[in-house]
Amino acid sequence: MYLRILKKDLKRKKTMNIILLLFVILATMFAASSVNNIITVMGGLDYFFEKANITEHFIITSLGNDGKETEEFLANNSNVKEYRREELSFLKDTDLTKDGKKLVEIDNSILILDIENAQLNYFNKDNEIIKDVPEGQVYFTGSIVPKLNIGIGDEVQAKVEDTELTLKYAGIGKDAFLGSEMMNNPRMIISHADYEKIMADEKAAKNDTAVIFYINGYDSKTLESDLSDAPNTIFNKPLSLIRTSYFMNSLVAALLLIVSVCLILVSFVVLRFTISFTINEEFREIGVMKALGLKNSSVRGLYLVKYLGISVIGAVVGFILSIPFGNALLKSVSENMVLGNDNMILINVLCSISVVLIIMLFCHRCTHKIKKLSPIDAVRSGQTGERFKKKGVMHLGKSKLGATGFLAFNDIFSSPKQFGIMTVIFSVCLLLIISLANTANTLSSEKLLPLLCTTNSDAYITDIDMLSNVQTGKETYKEISEDIEKKLTDNGMSGKVHSEALLFPTIEANGKKASPIFNYCRDTKASDYTYSEGYAPKYANEVALTIQVADKLGVGIGDKVKITLGDKTDTYIISALFQSMMQMGEAGRFSEATDIPDELIKQVMGFQIDFDDSPEQSVIEERIEKMKDIFNTKHVEDTDGYVMTCIGEGIKDTINGVKLMVLLITAVIVIMISVLMERSFISKEKSEIALMKAMGFKTGSVIAQHTLRFAIVAVIASVIAIALGTPFTKLCIDPVFGITGAINGVDYNIKPIEVCVIYPIVVIAATVLGAALTALYMKKIKASDTADIG
User: Fold this and answer.
1) Half-sphere exposure (CA, 13 Å, Cβ side) for 387?
2) Are residue 626 and residue 493 in the same domain, yes or no?
3) One domain for residues 322 and 379
4) Residue 711 vs residues 347, 419, 717, 739: alpha-carbon distances, Å
């Protein structure tokens, strides 16, 4: 008998049971994949670093330096336990070509590594250690990988000074030290024989080489301070900075976790509502079963068996789908990382079992109401005939709405719990999309300019050749700026050019040392920049520090610090604190009054152009296109483009990909919820629909009423989501940006059309589509069905 009852129930309510099954599948898939992925990502860096045999500290010597002086410093440092030396050569993106055309656009130099001199473990796409590279082949690592448009075996040409190599592409490589999006220092891993060909070129060996030192210490806590005086360095940082440089991978993982948690909650809320609604609706069946002599436990067991069967089937399917789904989510995070999780299957199984147990808990609670139902309920159609309060708050006589509008609004006010749940679900789904959109839009907007310690300009040139000439000393940044100004004037676009210089001094206070990156620009005023506390450094002996550097040294505003730049050590007063995303928050700023010789400036962020005639944005865009031809480079951008260049182009693309995925998932979930709820309402309100038809209402009018209810709910949910969009974004995303140094939060770039119009329309359209298509079922209901509750 049980089996017959179950079989008939499953056949009679196919739509609701199928949708219930789909939500069980979604809940299992989201739960298993998100838990698995967050465990993988959170432990991923440690796993990656361990496999790569990474060290506690890193030093990169200046270009053209053989590293002997730095090596002597390390050998004589009592806290250095061991160090490894890795020699490499540098290549500009203009010298990496395929069929005579530049292979990729890269803002930084490309590092060429001899595989036999590798001091870390580098991995291929299958996470296997690259132990050997055949002569004539090359692996690419880091930020260059997503931009490559070549296949395995394709030939590329690399030219270093007078030496040119033709290399076949062997695949991608994964580099734990420089492979993150933020480090933006790709490598070419080649054979020893090919590297020797480059070193045979005297100019290349002298001008285009540098050394990386991988260092472990006896006391890791003081190692950074002990190594801060290392000579001839352009990079001198601990492992903590490298760990932080993978924050964008963590950002994507965090966003995916937030999305998964919200979608799991949505799935469980829908499941609970559906189970409760189904049992409340089946008063006739329950009453009849009790009249036939079935006990409460037997009737309850029937429903428990039904939902156990649905949940087990859904959990098994969800478990199977969670593996490829989780891998797809991890793909954007693991492209440049080696991620490992030896317990993936076990975690997926445990999550699937948990989903089944939670559903059965819901079901057990909901079936508790069966005790209250009696055989007489089947006769009374589930009604006692008593009602002690008004069903709704609206009055038809006072309403200015038409019959359809009045009925739709009155239904919502009469059943606030049911429609309130829908409103919350739709709001959460829309909030997810809005927060992702706000994050992606902010990462490529001028809103982040203050956090990059840069003033707003009309245009920016970040050409690698110009930047490299400053770094190698071929030209000073002042000479390049004057040359740019001359060419602009010659082409009728006169303007002023300045650069944000990057300096790497050693700063000391209270017996502690640090090596932050310092900004300096004599052509702007320090007061043009943003500070959290204090006042902008005005005099030559004043500096501003980020909160992270001040905390590391144990100093504050008004305290004195010693700064060593070149061979000179001076005492400075801290006049202000600020926040910055430069070097993950470890930064400082000199006053424009400070006298810093040009020969000490070996690195600039770019060349900023302010046109004399203050043109409109449309004119600026036209001039940017002209400048690309004048300077023969694609690296001429407006403010938004400059910010994206600094942050990393791939980051925004990744988040936009996540946003699109969430938008599609949200649309599917909204449609499924609309179908489920409308099908439930039709089943519950069958007699009312029949009565309306008997009174003369046309089918189209009834369909419009039901559809309008969902549209109203979607509109209310959109208003709520729009109002909460910015606070929700700050709540979820601010902590992630805090990792980069923006500990006081970020001013988000809100695009009103996208956030307030496009995404709400998508949700409203999906809701109306699902409800309207399901409401077409009412065509089968006739006026004669007035007394039929089945």
Assistant:
1) 7
2) yes
3) yes
4) 40, 11, 10, 41
The β-bridge relationship of strands 110-114 and 187-190 is parallel
The b/e string for 239-264 (b: 16+ C-beta within 10 A; e otherwise) is bebbbbbbbbbbbbbbbbbbbbbbbb
Looking at 201, 231, 261, which one is the last position of a domain? Answer: 231
Q: With a cut of 50, say whether residue 387 has pLDDT above it.
A: no
CA distance 452 to 579: 9
CA–CA dist 212, 196 (Å, integer): 18
Render pLDDT for 328-378 as a digit per residue (tens, 0 to 9). 766 656 666 776 666 778 888 888 888 888 878 877 777 776 776 666 655
How far is it, in rounded angstroms, from Cα 545 to Cα 227? 20
Cβ neighbours of residue 274 closer than 8 Å, sequence gap 6 or more = 16, 19, 20, 23, 676, 680
| 177/191 same-domain check | yes
Alpha-carbon gap, residue 389 to 665, rounded angstroms: 40
| Residue entry with tokens 């690592």 | 141
* The predicted structure's pLDDT at residue 327: 74
Q: Are residues 282 and 306 in the same domain?
A: yes
Which of 367, 373, 56, 382 is CA-nearest to residue 226? 56
Helices and strands (H, E) in the chain, number of each type: 25, 24
Burial label for 698, CB within 10 Å (0-12, 13-18, 19+), is exposed
pLDDT tens profile 280-332? 666 667 777 777 777 777 777 777 787 788 888 888 988 888 888 777 766 65
Q: Are residues 670 and 610 in the same domain?
A: no
Q: What would the two tokens of residue 304 be?
A: 């428990």
Q: Which tokens in the block code for residue 776?
A: 């077409």
Q: Give the whole-angstrom CA distance, residue 239 versus residue 227.
A: 13
Residues 528 and 620 in one domain: yes
Name the β-bridge partners of 520.
Answer: 501
Of the pLDDT bands very low, low, confident and very high (cuts 50, 70, 90), residue 624 is: very high
Please tell me which residue, 151 or 408, carries the higher pLDDT value: 151
Cα distance between residue 229 and residue 76, in whole Å? 12
Nearest partner of 255 among 421, 423, 434, judged by Cα: 434
Indicate whether this model's pTM tops 0.85. no
Task: Read off the pLDDT of residues 112-164 as tens digits, 9 standing for 90 and up.
Answer: 999 999 999 999 888 889 999 999 999 998 777 777 778 888 999 988 888 88
Position 427, amino acid? S
Secondary structure (3-state) at 254: helix
The set of residues, in sequence order, having a beta carbon less than 8 Å from that of 367 and lying 6+ positions away, is 279, 300, 303, 304
- Of all residues in the chain, the percent with pLDDT exceeding 70 is 86
Token pair listed for 557: 């505003």
Residue 624 in tokens: 């940017």
Element at 267 (helix H, strand E): helix 247-281
The answer to whether 743 and 547 have CB atoms below 8 angstroms apart is: yes
Whether the CB-CB separation of 601 and 503 falls below 8 Å is answered with: yes
Residue 159 lies in a domain: yes
Question: Any residues with CB less than 8 A from the CB of 269 and at least 6 apart, and which?
Answer: 421, 424, 425
Enumerate residues 6+ apart whose C-beta is below 8 A from 739: 244, 247, 250, 584
Domain count across the chain? 4
For 211, residues 6+ apart whose C-beta sits below 8 A from its C-beta are: 60, 61, 65, 66, 67, 70, 71, 85, 86, 87, 88
Arithmetic mean of pLDDT, 263-292? 70
Range of the domain at 318: 1-51+249-384
CA distance 170 to 113: 14
Kindly report the number of other CB atoms within 10 A of residue 221's CB atom. 8
The predicted-structure confidence for 520-561, as pLDDT tens digits, reads as follows 998 999 999 999 999 999 999 999 999 999 998 999 999 999
Collapsing DSSP to helix, strand or coil, 188 comes out as strand
Q: Using one digit for the tens of pLDDT, what is the confidence trace for 575-603?
A: 999 998 887 788 999 999 998 888 888 78
Chain centroid to Cα 121, Å, comes to 27
